Amino acid sequence: MLKEIRNPEIGGKFLFIILVLFFLGNGLTRTHQKSDFLDYYHASQRWETKENLYKFDVAAELSQKVTTWEELFLPANASLLDALQNQTATYIYPPLFSFLLIPLGKLSPEIASGIHSFINWLALLGIFYLLSKGEKFGFKPKFNYWVFVLVILTNFRYLESHIQNNQVGILLVFLVLASLLSKNDIVSGLTLALATSIKVTPAVFIVLFLYEKRIKALLWFFLGMILWNALPLLYDFDYTLTMTKEWITQVLGNALSNPLLRSWKNNQSLPSTLAKYFISGADFVNQPLYRLPFADLSLNTVKTIQLIIILIFGAPILLLLKRPDRKWELASLLFLASCLFSGISWIHSFVICIFPMYFLISHFLTYEWSKRERNTFLVIASLVLLTHRSVVGSVMENVFLMFSVLFYLNAALYILILYFSFKKNEIRN
């Protein structure tokens, strides 16, 4: 058996199986622990109690009762204060996602968490099944399990965080890839519509429907948005309408227009990074510890800087849209952009790097890379792992996160993919 494992092909398959089983076990053994899934779980139960999905009503009620800081800590306001800290805006997805989880909300938290974790694991296997079709992405080398092993290792930090938090990102990556790979316009449109109805960021991938001139897929996407979101309307029309309005105004509106929304240490998005650097009080707990902000700028000034940076990063995509056969380069860039420039990007959010990393590793195996290109990629991939607390300790990891190291590393990954997108590549001999 050991001789068989030493065989490179069998060894890669063996290690891949070990890694995916590790993720399965790691997820199922954490079902009793507090995770982000509990926010989804409690939100699904509010469909029965008719409570506010996002608990913004708690903040409104507390603001009416409290006129001074002293009153905030009165025993009479203890339950409201607890709800404000542990429930308000902990669920920030559209109403449909919590509606789809209603069956899980009827189970115990541990069983529901286990089922959700297993669904995520199946989605992870689904992603690798789709990636095994390398020829569909324009890559010629024979399928190799070592590519999957490298993809997992370079994304290990994000996958570990995702599984610990029992998040939904892996499922979204699977839905997006399934949509982009399908040649059936109905399947592509409806699948991307489902992903967008769960979390709004996958909507950026309609750019690829336009790029390929798949007008029917685009029409099915818009029809799918109506159909998917009609499901909770049929269940409870008034409640769905109220919560949808709440999500659009309070969650989506704030996320798009306010860099201060959850601009905490672990938030690695561009808006959060600028807020930590230039707005006093963005993270009032951690900013004093790290002598931030560098300068105290107005909110409008920070928004202007944010817009300029987004335009600088976005302009090359507009140029790339005019070039043929750049679908998967664009897909890689859109995956990264959906995380870099959204309002809230925790560590687990960067699980979307599964595809960009797969793209670059397969690109290396297909085309000639210079020593400088290889070293650049190696440094970016290594630093993601080397800035983890298991290597540098929790104190240094906190420093790196406060200064948004993951934003810079993934922005560098974005630039590297742009570089290869415009470069004339030579196929390996």
Automatic annotation (TrEMBL):
Write the protein's name.
Answer: DUF2029 domain-containing protein
Q: Name one Pfam family in it.
A: GT87
- UniProt subcellular location: Cell membrane
Q: Main location per UniProt?
A: membrane
Sorted alphabetically, which keywords does the UniProt record give? Cell membrane, Membrane, Transferase, Transmembrane, Transmembrane helix
What GO annotations for molecular function exist for this entry? hexosyltransferase activity
Chain segments annotated as transmembrane: 12-29, 111-131, 143-159, 188-211, 218-235, 304-321, 333-361, 399-422
Show the coiled coil region(s): none
* Membrane topology category: Multi-pass membrane protein
- In the UniProt record, the signal sequence range is none
Cellular component GO terms held in the UniProt record: plasma membrane
Q: Which family does the similarity line name?
A: Belongs to the glycosyltransferase 87 family.
Q: Which superkingdom?
A: Bacteria
